[in-house]
Amino acid sequence: MLRWAIMFFVIALIAALFGFGGIAGESAWMGKVLLVVFLVLAVFSMLFGRRGPVAV
Asked: Where are the transmembrane segments (predicted)?
């Protein structure tokens, strides 16, 4: 998912470079959304992920 976010940011930069403001804005917005989703999932994965073996 991080790869998708970076890809949308690159698309936004290229579109802004060529003067396509609408496409650049939408790509940047989608990149921000994907980055936030990635960060939330990463935090949940770290907190509730696989834990060490439980001693019985």
From this structure: 5-23, 29-49
The total domain count for the chain is 1
Question: pTM, whole model, 2 decimals?
Answer: 0.71
56 domain residue, yes or no: no
For residue 42, being part of any structural domain is answered with: yes
CA distances from 23 to 17, 20, 32, 54, 55 (A): 11, 6, 14, 51, 55
Residues near 9 by beta carbon (within 8 Å), at least 6 away in sequence: 27, 28, 31
Average pLDDT, the chain: 84
- C-alpha to C-alpha distance for 22 and 40, rounded to whole angstroms: 27
